[in-house]
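DM from R.C. (forwarded with permission)

"hey, sorry to bug you on a friday — could you get me a structure for this? deadline for the figure draft is monday and I only need the backbone to look sensible"
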Amino acid sequence: MGASSSTEQKVSSEQRELESIAASTGALPMLKKTFSKLADPQSNALPINALQQCFHINYKSPVCEAPTKMPGSFPVLLENLGSSIVDLFLVSQKGGLNWVEFVRGYNKCCGRMSASMSFNTLFRLYAATVTKAGLPLKLEFESDDADCKISGSLLASDVTMLLWMCWTMLWDYRTLRNSKAKGKENLCLPDVSHLVLSAVTSCAEVAGDLNAWDCDVSALEVELPMGKFLTWAFKTMPSLPDCFTQFVHARLQNILTSEDESTSSSSSLGNMSSTKSCNSNLLTSGRAWAISLTLRSTISEEILQLCFPSDGDGMDGKLLYQSSLHGRGLNRFWSNIGGYKGPLLMLVSASKEDARGGSTNVKKWIIGALTENGFENKDLFYGSSGSLYAISPVFHVFPSAGKEKNFVYSHLHPAGKVYERQHKPVGIAFGGTMGNERVFVDEDFARVTIRHHATDKTYQPGSLFPDQGFLPVEALISEIEVWGLGGKAAKEVQSSYKKREELFTEQRRKVDLKTFGSWDESPEKMMMDMISDPNAVRREDR
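My reply, with the result:
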């Protein structure tokens, strides 16, 4: 009797602890409703087949943003993803999950945990799914602990499959969250070659003849040691495991909102016009997602809306400036981004001829800069935080180094002639010092100058494009885009600012004759008198 009550008390304390962990994420009420809806009335346990159906993914004919073809093994991987989640985390002892086992499994997937544990959970899921799909993989886990050491290596194709698996879970989560898009959007896989090349160049011993501008990542046979890959992942995409936690939570939440579970587990071909419109810009879905993976803030959510135009406000009003659309130069730039008090993402696409090897090749690359509080017309550096990005062909992020605060410089000559004791550069710059900026865009938006990171103590060191070298590089600008990431509030503030500017402009253009007492005091009378007799003696008012 005593042993029985002791066992019951032990189970009860474990249940309270598990429920406390689930409650810290805010999911406990949802878990209780989901369990009561799916549980068998007689056994009071969740059937395994119901959970497998809950997490089952079956996207028909997914399309790919990348020019390379999707491997045939990826749909097989997705088919085994749902059952792998159940087998790995929702472990049952008697053919069905009781309440304690259900909450324990949810905490393993979505509970609060360290970054290393969250990545370990994601890699464990990927390894289990690949193994269940019958695909080769060279990963080994030392134990079943949530934070054990992972040994082995990944191929470039493994990195592509891992990223696409995470994207699919994120796509599914965003689609389920948007009731209008549920069951209507087809899975569109982004181009992640820039992320894969980043992992390859950072983790593998690549031969010096690797051409990042003309490289088929699917054909790379290099091995990426798991230790180096984890270091790269922590730095470059710290929010990648969130794709898995959001997917699990959304699928369980969807049980309460959808009567027909099959509608949430499959999707058919839908309207892809929104995706195509996004890909016509420099900021494609793959590039926007890569930038969002580097962030853990509200800005990340704003960028993700650019990846999923059907979600929320989508792209409406977020593209503030595009040089091919609004015109080049600082004047056109300021007329479109002036008054925007919120985070801004600026992308610069440039090209430079490379005459090495006896032949001339034009190399194109894209860099980016993220500012927290918009642009201001100042003749000195300003800003409190920000990041630089090498976006294409290889992705890297360079956040603040914490040594200096020369984040942004944006200076436009005033309309009138103003004496300047020392000439200040006219243009937009990021990092470095005055006259020795790390990135400098001239006032005509014709050329961009990139200097070595040794000149910059504001942003972390690294090359903004492959084979940058130590000497400054001047390139021709092809396109510039500026995206507003401050949400509706920042856009409304900018609209009010533009209305005031238009009102002041109209007032300055008009002269109200009623403000003058008579014709003799009007400016027209004074001008006519001066033209008719400029040498006439006139009384001076004192």
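R.C.: lifesaver. The first helix runs from residue 2 to 24.
me: no worries. Confidence is low (pLDDT under 50) at residues 1-9, 260-278.
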